[in-house]
Amino acid sequence: MGHKECCEGGCMVKLVVGGLIGAGLALLLAPQAGKKTRKYLASLAEEMGGKANEAVSDFAETVSDFVDRASDRASDFLKEKEGLTKESKKTLLAALEKAQEKLEEQRKRLADSI
């Protein structure tokens, strides 16, 4: 997965959170009855929370699918290319290790944000 794909999921979450904050501030500063404003904010927060959860679920599913496909393709590649040179196998192993490190970094970032 390219850097752009990783960023898009995070950017979507930031966009939703920013929208919620902006909408909340606009409503709080608008001249309207407090009870009506609180009720509207509650419904808006519930709606945006649902959308944020959907976005996160979609992103998690995309990452999971990508990892599964990459793993399958690596296995298929190794089966087909059993005659690879030792140097080629080392290069492939290094690429897989780097990908695994990147996934672990992202997992840690997510765990830290919880």
From TrEMBL:
The record's annotation in Pfam families points to:
YtxH (PF12732)
Which chain positions lie within coiled-coil regions?
Answer: 67-113
- Which controlled-vocabulary keywords does the entry list? Coiled coil, Membrane, Transmembrane, Transmembrane helix
InterPro entries of this UniProt entry?
Desiccation-related_membrane (IPR052928), YtxH (IPR024623)
> Is Glycoprotein among the key words of this record?
no
User: Its domain of life?
Assistant: Bacteria
Coiled coil in keyword set: yes
Span-the-membrane segments of this chain are 12-30
| Record's protein name | YtxH domain-containing protein
